[in-house]
Design goal:
The structure holds two protein chains of two kinds. Chain A is of the alpha/beta class. Chain A has four helices and five strands; from the N terminus they run βαβααβαββ. In chain A, strand 4 and strand 5 form a beta hairpin. The N and C termini of chain A lie close together (11 Å). The longest helix of chain B has 20 residues. Chain B has one domain: P-loop containing nucleotide triphosphate hydrolases (Rossmann fold, 3-Layer(aba) Sandwich), CATH 3.40.50.300. By secondary structure, chain B is α/β, with parallel strands linked by helices.
Chain lengths: 115, 176
C-alpha cells in the first residue's frame, strides 16, 4: 500500500503516520525504508533525473512530504526548480497512492482513499 | 459559466482546468499570459504545450490589457492561464497598467473575455502560505492577487484547489 502524507511544516504529519500505520522512528531512516520522512529535503539534496522513475521507486511506502508550492515563486532558479520537481513527484505519487492525507494542525483530511 | 482552479506550484492545476473545459467546450481557446522570458518559463510553456497537444485548443497570448483583448471568434470555452502571471505583467512589466489600477483593469478584462465564450475557466495560484516577508512590491502583489482571487471565487459557479493533482472543491462540486 502506498500512502502520501502532505501538509505544511510542523503540522503533525509524522506523529499521525506513526499512529495510523504502526510505524516507529527507525522506520523513517532511509529513502529505501518502509517510510520516508521529509521527501522535499531528499529532493533538495539529490539529483532526480526522472520524476516518474523516482516516484515509482517510492511505491508501497508511507511517504511524508511538506507542501512547499504555496508561496511566492522564488527568484532563485534552483529553489524554483526544487519546488517544481517536488510538486510533480507528489502529483505522480498521489496518482497511484491508495491513500493521500493532508494534515493541518494534526487533523487529517483524507483527500484520496480511506483506511 | 465561470470556473476557477487554484493551487500551488506544480500541483496539477492545468491538467484539471483542461479536463474541465474539455468536458463542456468543443471549440476552445487557450489564452496564455506567461511571457516566454528565460529558460524556466520556456520549459513550463513547453510542458503545457505537450499537455494540451491533441485536445483541440486554439492558442493565443495576452500578457497585459485583457480588457481590450479580442479573440478571432466566439468560442464555446476559453481557458485563461494564469492569473498570477497576468497580474505580475500588469504590475511589473513596462506595458502594464501599474499597481494602482491593476485589479480593476484585470476584472474588466475578465468581463471582456466572458463576452467571447459560453464558459470561462481561470487558473490562478496559491502563493500566500510561505510565511515570508518580502519587499513592498512583492507584498503588494500577494495582496492584490488575494483580492482578485476572492472576487473571482465569489463570482464563479465553481471553484476548487488542486493538491498533488487531487481536486478539492470549494463550491459548485457537481460542475467539476
Amino acid at each position: 500500500m502506498t500512502v502520501l502524507i502532505i501538509g505544511g511544516a510542523y503540522q503533525g504529519k509524522k506523529e499521525l503516520a506513526k499512529k495510523l500505520f504502526n510505524l516507529n522512528d527507525d522506520d523513517f531512516n532511509s529513502i529505501t525504508g518502509k517510510a520516508v520522512y521529509n521527501l522535499h529535503d531528499y529532493i533538495k539534496n539529490n539529483n532526480i533525473p526522472n520524476i516518474t522513475d523516482f516516484a515509482n521507486s517510492l511505491r508501497d511506502k508511507v511517504i511524508i512530504c511538506n507542501e512547499i508550492g504555496c508561496g511566492v515563486v522564488p527568484i532563485d532558479k534552483e529553489l524554483d526548480n526544487w519546488r517544481e520537481i517536488t510538486g510533480r513527484v507528489c502529483c505522480e505519487i498521489a496518482s497511484f497512492a491508495d491513500i493521500v492525507i493532508r494534515v493541518t494542525a494534526g487533523i487529517p483530511q483524507f483527500i484520496k482513499g480511506r483506511i | 459559466m465561470k470556473i476557477i482552479i487554484t493551487g500551488g506550484s506544480a500541483s496539477g492545476k492545468s491538467a484539471h482546468a483542461e479536463r474541465i473545459i474539455c468536458k463542456y467546450a468543443k471549440d476552445k481557446l487557450y489564452l496564455a499570459t506567461m511571457q516566454p522570458f528565460g529558460k524556466a518559463a520556456q520549459q513550463r510553456i513547453k510542458r503545457h504545450l505537450n499537455l494540451r497537444h491533441g485536445k483541440g485548443f486554439d492558442t493565443e497570448e495576452c500578457f497585459t490589457n485583457l480588457a481590450d483583448f479580442k479573440p478571432k471568434k466566439i468560442y464555446d470555452g476559453i481557458l485563461l492561464e494564469c492569473m498570477s502571471n497576468l497580474l505580475a505583467n500588469e504590475m511589473f512589466s513596462p506595458d502594464g497598467i501599474g499597481f494602482n489600477n491593476a485589479v480593476k483593469h484585470i476584472l474588466k478584462g475578465i468581463n471582456n473575455i466572458e463576452k467571447y465564450c459560453k464558459m470561462l475557466v481561470v487558473v490562478t495560484s496559491e502563493i500566500f502560505s510561505d510565511g515570508e516577508s518580502y519587499p513592498y512590491e512583492t507584498m503588494e502583489y500577494c495582496r492584490l492577487l488575494g483580492q482578485i482571487n476572492k472576487i473571482l471565487f465569489d463570482s464563479s459557479d465553481a471553484a476548487a484547489e488542486s493538491v498533488c493533482g487531487i481536486l478539492l472543491p470549494y463550491k459548485g462540486e457537481n460542475l467539476l
